[in-house]
From TrEMBL:
To bacterial alkanal monooxygenase alpha and beta chains. InterPro entries: Bact_Lucif_Oxidored, CmoO-like, Luciferase-like_dom, Luciferase-like_sf. This is Luciferase-like domain-containing protein. It holds the Pfam family Bac_luciferase. NCBIfam families: oxido_grp_1.
Amino acid sequence: MSTDTIRGVPRGTAEAPLSILELATVGEGVTPGEALRDATELARRGERWGYHRLWVAEHHGMPGVASSSPAVLIAHLAAATSTIRVGSGGVMLPNHAPLVIAEQFGTLHALHPGRIDLGLGRAPGTDMATAGALRRQAEVDPDDFPQQVAELTGFLDGSFPAGHPYASLQATPRGDDRPPIWLLGSSGFSARMAGLLGLPFAFAHHFSAANTEPALDLYRSSFRPSAVLDQPYALIGVAALAADTEEEALRQAMPGALSWLRMRLGRPGRMPTPEEAAAYPYTPIEEEFVRDRLSTVVYGEPERVRAGLEELRKRTGADELMITTMVHGGEARLRSYELVARAYGMLG
């Protein structure tokens, strides 16, 4: 599998492919069903607007996120579209038996050949109590992640060596090929592992901005060509929000910052409205947190957002940008992605 297979053929005039990271955000006054319908509409329009791929993230125990079951949501989004790549950004592999993921994504690949991506992370995606309930054991050694990835690859490829405990097992359905595996990370561990395995790497710049360039440098310096990739391919997740005016962009960005603040305070909830975020009584420390959070978000009028994204792409050398837009309400999210696509000339 070459870099072209991983990247595909980007459309429009974007200097690098633009993609979407979707969490099916549930805002105040919004039901999970409505949030999932908004995610479906974004997938349809994102495909029409020229976005390259759409990934959904696995999170648990968060009232403001409806993407707790990536395989189920991917199946729905892929069925609602026809060309955009759909995948996980990512499946938190320690939460699952590798055979289960091989069966789920083997099924997705059989249903939508050539359109499914399997992104893997090693974090729990939740608090430790919920992780224990998911895994049926309280402690999971993160150092087991390489072994879990090897097992998953063995099931997907049917490549267990003779004498392996699982050599006689077969994950079904399994065709002649499989979805590409990506490793996701917010530190150097997965960056180095992706490089050594010759896999594409996705870095969570949107919540670990200080580690982006060191992690990408480590990935590239560690990279070894493999059967699936002949040169490094790095994607970064970016928080971005475009609106018709700078003032409106800031107004729409504030709920996401408040949501992050509440999560850090141990009080995760639904995405607040812009009015709620504006009226919140921030302490000086909380104001500093919000300013710091907003400094990692590329927001503003469309051309300013494009300029910010391009500066980030050139600075990091990223091969692809995956935009996540944390706002209250589906219409604001759709408008932002449309404005970014227009700024890049992707709508013709």
